[in-house]
Amino acid sequence: MLRLRVTLQEDLDLLEASLQEEGELVRRALRGALNALEQQDAELADEVIAFDDQVDACYFRIETGIQSLLARQAPAAVDLRLVLAILHVNLHLERMADYCVTVAKLTKLVAGAPADPTLVEAFEEMGSRAEEMIRVALDSFAARDVDRAESLVELDELIDRANRRAVKQVIALGDDDEQREWGLRMLLVSRCLERIGDHAVDIGEQTAFLVTGEFREFTDASH
Amino acid sequence: MATSASREQVETQQTATPTTASGPTAIEVSELNLYYGSFLAVADVNMSIERNKATALIGASGCGKSTFLRSLNRMHELVPGARAEGTIALDGEDVYSPTVDPVAVRRRVGMVFQAPNPFPTMSIYDNVAAGLKLNSRRIKKADLDVIVERSLRGANLWDEVKDRLDKPGSGLSGGQQQRLCIARATAIEPEVLLMDEPASALDPISTLAIEDLVQELKREYTIVIVTHNMQQASRASDITGFFNIEAAGQPGRLVEMDTTEKIFTNPSNKATEDYVSGRFG
After folding, report:
1. CB pair distance less than 8 Å for B230 and A81
2. How far apart are the first and last CA of chain B?
3. Looking at CA atoms only, how far is residue A51 from chain B in angstroms?
4. Do the bridges between strand B192-196 and strand B82-90 make them parallel or antiparallel, or are there none, so unpaired?
5. ipTM for the assembly
6. B264–A214: do the CB atoms touch at under 8 Å?
7. What is the C-alpha to C-alpha distance for residues A165 and A126, in angstroms, rounded to an integer?
8. Within an 8 Å CB–CB cutoff, is residue A168 touching chain B?
9. SS3 letters for B48-75?
10. How many CB pairs under 8 A join A and B?
C-alpha cells in the first residue's frame, strides 16, 4: 500500500516523542522535590523550582506543534484522537510539574523546622508510587495499552490511602507550634503527591479515549 | 424490479452493507446492484437516506459513489448498457417500478452537477424558469416571477442578479452559475436534491457559499452530495457514507455509513479510518 501523509505522521511522531520527554522531565522534577524534602535541602529545592522552566518549554513546544498540526494537517479519526489526547496529556504533565514546584517551595518554607521522620518516610513512599504512576501512564499511552492504563486506578488508591494516613499523623503531632506548622505544610505536600497520582490516572483515561474513541472516567467522583 | 442470478454470486463475496437512519426516511435503498453492461460497478448497497438531512458520499475515484448517486434519480440508466437491480424507494415507491415514469422521478429528485451548466443562451430568469417550462406546466407570468425570485433567494443569488435577470446566465461567475443551477433545480420543488461534486470547479469562497447553501437547503429538501473533499463532507453533511473497492475491477460497496461526526472521529471500519485520515493508497 502506498504510504501517504508522511509529514503528518512525522509531526505526530515528534509530538509523541516530546510528550515522553516531558514525562521524563516531570519524573526528574518529582525525584528532585522528594530528595529536597527528605534531606531538607533548600538549594536543591531552588533547583527544582528553576527546573520547571524546562518543563514549561517542552509544554509550549508541544502546544505550538499541536496548533500548527491542526491548522495545516486537518487530522481525522485516530489521528485527531491522538492530537486531542496529546493536548490533554501535555496539560496533565505540566500540572504535575507545578505540584513538584509547590513541594519544593514548601520544603523551603519549613527549612530548619523539626521534621517527623515517619511522615517524611511516608512521603518518600507516596512519591515513589507517583513516579511509578507517571511511568505506567506514559508507557501505556505509547503502547496504546488500555488494560495497563486502567491499572493506574489501583496504584492511585494506594496514594490516596497514604494521603488519608498523613492527615491522621499530622493531627497526632502534638501541640508544639513549630511542629504543627511543619505538619500543616506537609499536608499540602501530601495533597500535591496525591494530585500527581490523579493526573496520572487522567492520562490513563486519555489512553482509553485514544484507543476506543470514547471518553470515560475510570472512577466516579465519589471515589 | 427483478433480481438476477449474478446477485447470488456477489452476495457470497461480501458481508451485508450498513445502513443508518434515526429520523424519517426519504429514500430507502435495498440490495442495489448497478451495472455497466456486464460489469458490476456497485454491489449490494443498502442505505436509508434521512429526510431533510445532508448525506455525503465519499470514497476514492472509481468506487461507484457517483454511479450510485445517479441511480437515485434514474440517470444511471441513460448510459447505454447501464442497468440497475434492487429497489430504490422514494417515499415508499420504487422509482424503478415499470409503472414509474423516469421523468417524473427526476422531477422529484433534482440534480446539480460538477461543472455549472446554465443554458448559455438563456437569460438568468429563463434559466431558473426552464425547468418549469420544460415540465410543461402552464403557469402565469406573475406566478413564474414569484417562483424565480423565491428560487434565486433560496440559492442566495437574488441580491446579486435581481437587476440583471434578462442577462445571460453564462455571464455570471462560476460560483454564481452553480448557485443559478441550484436555483433552477429547486424551482421545480423537488423532494431530494442530488449534488455531484458541486463545488469541485469553484474557488474556496464560492465553495464555502455552496456549503452554507446546503445547510439552508436541507430545511426544505433532502440533500445527497458526492464529494472528493473530505473537509467539505465533514463541514457540510449530517450523515456520511463511505464507498470503497477492494481491488481494481471489483465493484464498489458501501463500507460504512454513520453520523458525519462518528465517521470523522471514530469510524468503525478500518478502511474508513484509513480513508478519512488520508492513509488510503
Report:
1. no
2. 37
3. 37
4. unpaired
5. 0.75
6. no
7. 11
8. no
9. EEECCCEEEEECCCCCCHHHHHHHCCCC
10. 40
Q: Between chains, do B266 and A79 touch, taking CB under 8 Å as contact?
A: no
Closest Cα to residue A51, out of A73, A16, A26?
A26
- Write out chain B residues lying below 8 Å of A3, CB-based: 281
CA distance B151 to A55: 59
Distance CA A190, CA A209 (A): 29
Residue for grid cell 455571464: B171
Q: Do residues B123 and B172 lie in contact, with contact meaning Cβ atoms separated by under 8 Å?
A: no
Cβ of B266 and A2 within 8 Å?
no
What type of residue is B99? T
pLDDT of residue A22: 98
Q: Does A78 touch chain B (CB under 8 A)?
A: yes
Name the more confident of B4 and B21. Answer: B21
The alpha-carbon gap from A207 to the nearest alpha carbon of chain B, in Å, equals 14
With cell 447501464, the residue in question is B82
Per-residue confidence in pLDDT tens, chain A, 223 aa: 566 788 899 999 999 999 999 999 999 999 999 999 999 999 999 999 999 999 999 999 999 999 999 988 889 999 999 999 999 999 999 999 999 999 999 999 998 888 899 999 999 999 999 999 999 999 999 999 999 999 999 999 999 999 999 999 998 888 888 888 999 999 999 999 999 999 999 999 999 999 999 999 998 776 6
pLDDT of res. A6: 85
Of the residues B58, B231, B273, B277, the best mutation for testing chain A's interface (the one with the most A CB atoms within 10 Å of its CB) is: B277
Residue A12: partners with Cβ closer than 8 Å, 6 or more residues away: A69, A75, A79, A82, A83
Decide: A128 and A33 in contact? Cβ < 8 Å.
Answer: no
Are the beta carbons of A80 and B278 separated by less than 8 Å? no
Residue ranges of E strands in chain B: 25-36, 39-50, 54-58, 82-90, 93-94, 109-112, 192-196, 222-226, 239-244, 253-259
Pairwise CA distance, residues B72 & B70, whole Å: 5
pLDDT score of B51 more than 90: yes
- Residue-wise pLDDT for A2-30, tens only, equals 667 888 999 999 999 999 999 999 999 99
Determine the Cα–Cα distance for residues B139 and B150; give it in Å rounded to an integer.
Answer: 15
Q: With contact defined as beta carbons under 8 Å apart, do B1 and B97 qualify?
A: yes
Between chains, do A4 and B278 touch, taking CB under 8 Å as contact? Answer: yes
pLDDT digits (tens, 9 = 90+) for B164-222: 999 999 999 999 999 999 999 999 999 999 999 999 888 888 898 899 999 999 999 99
Neighbours of A161 (CB within 10 A): 12
- The verdict on a CB contact (< 8 Å) between A76 and B279 is no
